[in-house]
Write a structure and sequence with these properties.
2 copies of one chain form a homodimer.
Chain A: H1 2-8, H2 12-19, H3 27-40, H4 46-52, E1 60-65, H5 71-86, E2 90-95, H6 100-112, E3 117-120, H7 131-135, E4 140-143, E5 153-157, H8 159-172, E6 178-181, H9 188-204, E7 213-214, H10 219-232, E8 239-242, H11 245-257, E9 265-269, E10 283-286, H12 289-305, E11 313-316, E12 319-321
Parallel strand pairs in A: 1-2, 1-3, 3-4, 4-5, 5-11, 6-7, 6-8, 8-9, 9-10
Antiparallel strand pairs in A: 10-12
The structure holds a DNA duplex (16 and 16 nucleotides).
DNA sequence: TTGAAAGCGCTAACAA
DNA sequence: TTGTTAGCGCTTTCAA
């Protein structure tokens, strides 16, 4: 910048003014300066700028996801980045594989980099460790899961209602022998889904006493094995609700393996590509990752501008998409 | 930091020494300082640090992808982030939707943020605009596609060989009436795949004169429509090679729609989730995004440490995965 | 082993 | 309309 000022024959502050489109610069000097920037291939140093600027903004936010390789979270990432890019805000993305330790380490790293906001998928049993940052007024929004031990904005799917829809859908087909298969039980969304499912059974007068709840399934293969065991046991269910994406894939494999794809009904929580290309297509409770991401970005921007409002949880509706697997009638035993 | 120094009753430089684990600090003062950092909840300011540091490193890299929502690129992202995180390097990720204009704008933004390196999927017709950064010795690695008009490291799939494998596979089943369906022709990988496919036909003595090349297909729906038209026309192919992921999905839909899934052979370039859950499973030329990402990260790290070596293109092998759709014999007309 | 002073590239505050 | 000075939080250099 000093070089530019020298070349243009003006003061360094004038260059700063031109670069930042501040008023009070004559058109003539403006052009001289711009000419010099081009000649020297000058690029503003954002790191230096943020050090001195009034609000100390770095124009960056930290995004913490289970994994950037996961399509669901990738869509959230994309949606929020689209909103933020318009405001010149860059996204630092990191994956924590649902490990509490990495969550904390990566958030600390974001804070060391003085991000202007945090968008986090929490997994630790408490987010109280964020209290210092919160009282520092660092904008923060939780996505997909609500924080624990900290009152802050969150944007989540309508997990309980979605799971209830799935249960109601299966029950309306005449199923009474249902089974629930789920992933990690220490994650809030999982508990919400289970709650919605159980509640709906209650409302419909279906006893949960005989409903197997197979939870804590770790990934696709584990789910497959559990489903095979369930389906080959005594009094197998006529309908399965899978509360998690990878679990759904595992159940699909089990059904295919046992030749039961057209016999046992299946509704999964969470949509996935090609869910309509299998035979039958898979009925799912679809979430709206783009919507979640967009709202999260808007909330972070709002927190950056306003004084802090009362924290709120934004609930994004889910939608049951019937594709065949959920519309299979109970078979006779 | 000044506050920490004050509280600990030491000089500011001593705090800096402790924070950075520099030697020449007595254990006693070390403990005093650490105690003070905890008491004040002190967090090093990475932005300020990088301004003054010897190499001016920001410990961040810029990653440009077609879209972070795309699973293939998401896997690349994940793999390279895993390598870089170990070195304390954060990843700024951005999506450019294969638009040249956004590529340039986002790269400029990365450079303004003084990233320590760039990992880019290029789409512009030339990357010559990076010459200044290149001569500035900014580490850069291109992924999935090679740069044009700039000699730099690249990590790409073995596109030509992969497409040739697909062609050879279909020909070995007795197919001679092949069709080639592809996406944008202005992207390097597409041209490589076409080349590999054509070359293999030549080697096998299959005339390309009668092979329809349907290219420039824009997304899944466009591909579906094109495939339907092709398959319902005169002398339809008995085997299709789809050179791009979304095109493969479109072709799959067309085949299903026409009831030809078990009749017309299909090999797609690029694996995707559930490719084995359809009926038949889809035979694909699988790429290795994790491998691509890992090598890209290693190259960027190497460029950060070494003096610049002769640029190289790293070719990651592909693998034909037979799942059924590619093993369908030619049907009689 | 420790600390004081200078300065990284920029912007805020103020002066001309 | 323009320029000068100070200083953001840190590390470097150099001296004690």
């Amino acid at each position: 910048m000093r070089d530019v000022a020298l070349l243009a024959g003006v003061g360094i502050k004038t260059v700063s003014r031109v670069i930042n489109d501040e008023p009070a610069v004559s058109e003539a000097t403006r052009r001289k300066v711009l000419q010099a920037t081009r000649q020297l291939n000058y690029q503003l140093d954002m790191t230096a700028r943020s050090l001195r600027r009034a609000g100390r903004e770095t124009l960056s936010i930290g995004l913490l996801l289970p994994s950037v390789a996961n399509p669901f979270h990738g869509q959230i990432h994309r949606a929020l980045a689209d909103v933020l890019t318009v405001h010149g805000i860059a996204v630092l993305a990191a994956s924590m594989d649902d490990e509490a330790k990495r969550e904390k380490a990566l958030v600390a790293e974001f804070l060391r980099r003085r991000v202007d906001g945090l968008i986090l998928t929490p997994v630790a049993t408490s987010q109280a460790y964020l209290m210092p940052a919160y009282s520092w007024n660092v904008p923060m929004v939780f996505v997909d899961r609500e924080p624990i031990g900290l009152d802050a904005d969150a944007v989540v799917s309508d997990n309980a209602v979605g799971a209830a829809k799935a249960a109601a859908h299966l029950i309306s087909q005449g199923h009474t022998r249902l089974a629930y298969l789920g992933g990690r039980t220490d994650i809030q969304t999982a508990r919400e889904r289970r709650r919605g499912f159980v509640d709906e059974l209650g409302r419909a007068g279906v006893s949960t006493a005989t409903v197997p709840f197979l939870e804590g399934l770790q990934g696709e293969e584990d789910a497959r094995a559990a489903a095979v065991e369930l389906l080959t046991g005594i009094e197998p269910p006529t309908a399965i609700f899978s509360a998690q994406n990878l679990v759904t894939l595992g159940v699909m494999r089990a059904l295919k393996e046992l030749g039961l794809s057209a016999v046992v009904a299946l509704v999964g929580f969470g949509d996935f590509p090609l869910s309509d290309m299998t035979d039958p297509g898979i009925t799912v409770v679809a979430q709206h990752p783009e919507h979640i991401g967009r709202v999260a970005a808007e909330r972070v921007l709002a927190q950056m501008e306003e004084v802090r409002q009362e924290p709120r949880t934004y609930i994004v509706p889910t939608k049951l998409v019937a594709r065949g697997s959920g519309e299979i009638s109970p078979h006779l035993t």
